[in-house]
Design brief:
Blueprint lengths: L8 H7 L4 E2 H7 L5 H13 L3 E6 L6 E6 L1 H4 L2 H17 L10
């Protein structure tokens, strides 16, 4: 739980199953504040779950995030969590289903 515990880490990780630019990730995780997203990304990078690549060869600055090999070991677990959440959303009208890719 040290790696994926907390309110947003699993959500962020499931969106990073495919490599994303920061702006794409920000749009996908629109309910997370920018500060929280930034802090969570830094924690997961420090834990070795994701890598951050900065491209500075020409403006504008481009930053991409992707799962490391260690982070990719979580993919089956993340899919299971998402499936459980979608099933829970079907039976509990207070929960909203969210699509991920």
């Amino acid at each position: 739980m040290r790696y994926i515990g907390g309110k947003w880490k699993a959500t962020i990780l499931i969106h990073l199953i495919e490599k994303k630019r920061y702006s794409e990730l920000r749009k996908a995780c629109y309910v997370i504040t920018e500060r929280t997203l930034s802090l969570q990304l830094k924690e997961m990078e420090a834990d070795g779950l994701i890598t951050r690549t900065v491209y500075t060869s020409k403006p504008p600055l481009k930053v991409e995030y992707e799962l490391t090999d260690f982070g990719k070991t979580l993919i089956p677990l993340l899919h299971s969590i998402a499936e459980w959440g979608n099933e829970a959303a079907k039976t509990n009208k207070k929960i909203t289903m969210v699509e991920y890719k």
